[in-house]
């Protein structure tokens, strides 16, 4: 899963690359490459990569969990899946979600 944000934390795009059956470290590596490619496709060339392996990255973890239920790669432009919107907004404001 990838979330692309601007310097103020607002979402510019997000995507999930379906990777059923992959080892965790391989899935993480593929997701990173896919996310960077998606960012470049959207015209962004200065990016900061955050990974789901961080225990406190609730947004990445929630979207990765959502991705387990998808059957095809999915993209959102200037948006995220509704299921994680409150986490994304809380993360942007740097507070814990309700």
From TrEMBL:
Q: Which organism is it from?
A: Hibiscus sabdariffa
Positions of the RNase H type-1 domain = 3-52
Superkingdom of origin:
Eukaryota
Q: Fetch the InterPro entries from UniProt.
A: RNase_H-like_EbsB-rel, RNaseH_domain
User: Which protein are we looking at?
Assistant: RNase H type-1 domain-containing protein
Q: Name one Pfam family in it.
A: RVT_3
The root-end lineage is: Eukaryota, Viridiplantae, Streptophyta, Embryophyta, Tracheophyta
């Amino acid at each position: 899963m990838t979330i692309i944000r601007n310097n103020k934390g607002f979402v510019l795009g997000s995507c999930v690359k379906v990777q059923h059956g992959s080892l965790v470290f391989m899935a993480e590596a593929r997701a990173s490459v896919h996310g960077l490619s998606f960012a470049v496709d959207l015209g962004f060339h200065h990016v900061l990569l955050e990974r789901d392996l961080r225990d406190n990255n609730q947004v990445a973890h929630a979207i990765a969990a959502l991705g387990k239920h998808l059957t095809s790669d999915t993209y959102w432009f200037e948006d995220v899946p509704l299921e994680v919107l409150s986490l994304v907004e809380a993360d942007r404001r740097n507070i814990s979600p309700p």
